[in-house]
Amino acid sequence: MKTVIIHGQDHKGSTYHIAHEIAEKTGSDITEFFLPRDFGEFCIGCTNCFSKNRGACPHHEKLAPITQAMDEADVIILASPVYVYHATGAMKAFLDHYGHRWMVHSPEPSMFRKQGVVISTAAGAGMRSTNKDMADSLFFWGVAKTYKYGCAVAAVNWNGVSDKKKASIHKNTSRIASAIVKRNGRVKPGLKTKAFFFAMHIFQRKGFNDRDREYWKEMGWTGRERPWH
Ligand SMILES: Cc1cc2nc3c(=O)[nH]c(=O)nc-3n(C[C@H](O)[C@H](O)[C@H](O)COP(=O)(O)O)c2cc1C
Question: Whole-prediction pTM value?
Answer without folding.
Answer: 0.98
